[in-house]
Write a structure and sequence with these properties.
By secondary structure, the protein is an all-alpha fold. The chain folds into 2 domains: 48 residues, Arc Repressor Mutant, subunit A, CATH 1.10.10.60; 137 residues, Tetracycline Repressor, domain 2, CATH 1.10.357. 65% of the residues lie in helices and 0% in strands. The protein is built from 9 helices and no strands. It is globular and about 55 Å long.
Length: 192
């Protein structure tokens, strides 16, 4: 496993502190200390603590990179997508503070210009495109929709589930509910 780069260290430390102490009670100095980096490094990547909000998307990408390695080569690609969703939502439900996730969505709605959640260069999108493309090549996923259309459907379904979970204050299990809903979106695309 490759060593984490400076930006990853800062992001991981920040989100651990946000979860443990809360966003408001976490200082930039604490993030720098926990990450083992410098003030210069912090400000090289981020203009402020607020600018870290969008970085949660990249923390999710790190999880997707780990999960990609766990997908069996012969796993049906619809099952692989359902696996990724379940594992990511377990991480979110168990280790991401609901208030922070809500702040992320609010910041993305208010952000002008680039939105980290929609950055097509993220690992998230690359992995989804690869899995869907493989599924279509193997005859496991319909070709009636393009890879881009299926990626959009998948990501829209995930965002809708996360947004609703935030709106309802986490009153239900995100993982259990997504386990019921995601197949409704994905099963019509499956070729047995």
């Amino acid at each position: 496993m490759k060593e984490k780069n400076t930006k990853s260290k800062i992001v991981e430390a920040a989100w651990q502190l946000f979860y443990e102490k809360g966003y408001e009670r976490t200082t930039v100095e604490e993030i720098i200390a926990k990450s083992g980096t410098s003030k210069g490094s912090f400000y090289h990547y981020f203009t402020s603590k607020d600018s870290l909000m969008g970085s949660l998307a990249y923390l999710f990408d790190e999880r997707y990179d780990e999960l990609e390695e766990m997908i069996a080569p012969d796993m049906h690609r619809i099952d692989a997508l359902l696996f990724l969703n379940k594992q990511l939502f377990e991480m979110i439900e168990n280790s991401v503070d609901l208030e922070l996730l809500t702040r992320l969505y609010a910041s993305q709605l208010l952000t002008k210009g680039d939105k980290e959640l929609l950055d097509r260069n993220r690992s998230y999108y690359k992995i989804l495109r690869r899995l869907i493309g493989e599924g279509q090549e193997r005859g496991q996923i319909t070709k009636e929709k393009s890879i881009s259309e299926i990626v959009q459907l998948y990501t829209m379904a995930e965002r809708a589930l996360l947004y609703d979970w935030c709106l309802r204050g986490g009153e239900y299990s995100l993982v259990a509910y997504a386990g019921q809903i995601m197949p409704i979106f994905l099963e019509p695309l499956r070729i047995l």
